[in-house]
Structure formats: C-alpha cells, structure tokens
Amino acid sequence: MSEFENVFRKACLIQLSTSTWMGSKMLDQSHMTKVSQNSEWLRGKKFLINPELLGPLHTSTHQARDLVKQYALPFPITSLYLIPKESLGFVDERLNYQKEKFLEKVDAFVGTYDLAREEAKRHLKELFNEADYPMDIRSKFKFDWRFLSLDVPGKGSILSPAVYEREVKKFEEMMEDARTMAAVALREEFAEIVSSLVERLGKDNGQGKTIKSSMFNKLHEFLADLTTRNIFDDEKLKELAAIAQDAISGISPYGLNYNAQMKEKMKTAMAILKEAIHDSIEDLPKRKIRLALAA
Description:
The protein is of the alpha+beta class. It has helices at 2-10, 55-71, 85-124, 161-201, 213-229, 235-248, 253-258, 260-282, and strands at 11-19, 24-26, 45-47, 73-74, 80-84, 142-148, 203-204, 207-208. The strands form 3 sheets. The chain has a 4-stranded antiparallel sheet with strand order 4-5-1-6. A two-stranded antiparallel ribbon has the order 2-3. Strands 7-8 form a two-stranded antiparallel ribbon.
C-alpha cells in the first residue's frame, strides 16, 4: 500500500466539471416528417437556437479539458485525472484564466439570448415552444474544478475487518489500473513523437523532408517533463527515454539537413526506438480498466 500512497505525495487528483446549454431537443416521431422541409434547423432534433452561438462556449470547455489532459495522467474513475504536484499551480492558474474567458462568453451569449430566441421562432414556426427555453439561461452554464485526495479508510474506521480488507483490495486494484493507464498514455505519446521524427527523417519521392527544430523540441520537452509526469516510476519508460536522450544528444536539425550520413544514422536509431516503444506498449498487462469504482 505504501507504494501507492507515495503516488499521492507526487500528484493530486483533479476533477473538471463543465457544461453548456444543449440548445437542441429531440423531435417527437410525429414531427419527423417535417425534417426534410427545414434541414438547417430540423435534423431528427430541433435546434432551439442557432448552434453557432454556442460554438465559442464549447471551444472554451474543450480547451480546458485539453489543458488538463496535457498536464495530467488518466485515472480509472471517470472525470478524474492525476496532476503532478509540480504542475498544480500552473494548471490552476490557466483554468482560472479560461474560466474568466468562459464567463465572458456566457455574458455575450446571455446578451443575445432574446434575439436568438426570436430568430428560432421564425425558423421553427409551429414547432417553436416557449417552454423549451430556460428563464434563467445563465444557470445552464458551468465551469468548475476541484483538487481531491484519495485513500482507503484506515483500520480505525467504522468499517468491519472484512469490509476494510475488501476496500483495501479494491483500492490496490484501482491503483494498478491507474499505473497501467499512465504507462499506456505516456508510452503512446512518446511513440507518436518518435514516429513523427521517423517520418520526417524518411524520404518522400526521393526528396528528403526538412527537419525542423519544432520536431526535436517536442521530443526534448517530453524527455524534460518525464521526471515530473512519470509518477509511477515506469522503469521501461525511463530506459527508452535514456536511449532517446543519447540518440539526440549534440544533434541539431540544421546538421541533419546537410549531412546525409548523420541523417540516415538518426533515422535508423529513431526507427529502432519507435519499434521498441511499440513493443513496450504491447507488453503491458491487458487489464480491464474500470471507469468507476465497483459498488
């Protein structure tokens, strides 16, 4: 148990909760025959408002989730992610900024809500229903997050010994799943970066593709961040990262573009590394990842 408890000294769970008004409603079967008459507003469901007005709000929530995923590792409880402690302050700061922008977009939407509802009334005609439109539209938008700690109850809790042992086992199984999910996520990200480099180092119709600094920057950033993100101390990932570090040490994109022999050597090294990473993913335990704690 101490091994997994140590994880929560390196990272914290984050739960991001966002929602926006759907702005649409499924049509009754009796209305389905009218879909072809107005395809812009009726597609098996009716749009209660021009969907483009909600686009900026959806973009904000997607950006927030992408931010969390960029700095976090997956976790086997739906909507929870593990954030390394070194990234907590930055992620919290960026989420505060994105929430501020989200609320500004909510204000803008609320300001156009009445006019947008009138536009819908013109398009929907007899299918327009005032009851479909919330009086307090602002309450339909949400952007919040919280940091959580997770542990099993201690032996001195109200649980009986049998229940306590069961909960300990469930906790350990969940953390094993978290370990596997983290290993898969990091190794797949590593594989994607290396695969892109291999592609760049290859040839296209006899013409070599230009190697840009940005391609190596991604690899350098991944390797630099790995110390923080590898909270489960994945030894195989460390080994592969060390190989990558040795391969690119002292290598510049400029030199590769003008030295065919060096470029071919780097291509071979990256291709071998790519296969090794893919093999390491295949070697991971094929566990059934639980999306929520068992009842």
